[in-house]
Amino acid sequence: MSYEMVTMSRGDGIWEDDLIHVTDRFVARIVETLERTYIHAPPSEASAPCTTLLKLSPAFEREGRLGWLSHLPAGFGALCDDDAGPERSPLLLIEDGRELGPGHEAHETIRNLGRGCYSFWKGELYFSSSDGSDPNRNGRVYAVRRIE
Q1: What is the pTM of this model?
Q2: Which residue, 66, 4, 2, 6, is CA-closest to 34?
């Protein structure tokens, strides 16, 4: 999973200037993802209280091999990541009551790796289901929560 996170992610902050070594910041993100996925309970269950803001409804638009797109209602743009704050969003994506993740993920990673990665970006939600299934047909409930 860590190899895919590095090779499929795009943008600043991944590679050192030598384009050989991965930045300490990105390594920390990989470690956090691995710990959350394989060791700890999802943060929404383990720590900060959350408020459910929105239940998402199909039809979700296909976004690559494993990715999906949901247009969020007006007003959510201020809560999403953007160029000025690429990891500021307090929003979490929930699938059948369990947090997916990691969040703030590169869209290319969501499209090609899947595994529940998501990104609230400029009023849109780019996401993948936990098992690569089609969220329009898998019968799961998707919701947006906000960390308090």
Answers
A1: 0.71
A2: 2
**Quick check: 107 and 114 in contact, CB under 8 A?**
no
Whether 126 contacts 119, CB under 8 Å: yes
Name the CA dihedral angle for 126, 128, 130, 131, rounded to a multiple of 10 degrees. Answer: 180
Classify 112 as helix, strand or coil.
Answer: helix
Spatial CB neighbours of 86, under 8 Å, sequence gap ≥ 6: 11, 104
| Domain of residue 108, residue span | 2-147
Please give the DSSP secondary-structure letter assigned to residue 79.
Answer: G
Asked whether residue 45 carries a pLDDT value surpassing 50, the answer given is: no
Dist. CA 25–CA 1, nearest whole Å: 17
For the chain, what is the domain count?
1
85 phi-psi bin (left φ>0, alpha ψ -120 to 50, beta other) = beta
Contact 100, 94 (CB under 8 A): yes
Strand partners of residue 94: 99, 143
Neighbours of 17 (CB within 10 A): 7
Res. 28 pLDDT band, cuts 50 70 90: confident
pLDDT surpassing 80 at residue 137:
yes
Measured CA to CA, the distance from residue 95 to residue 88 in angstroms comes to: 21
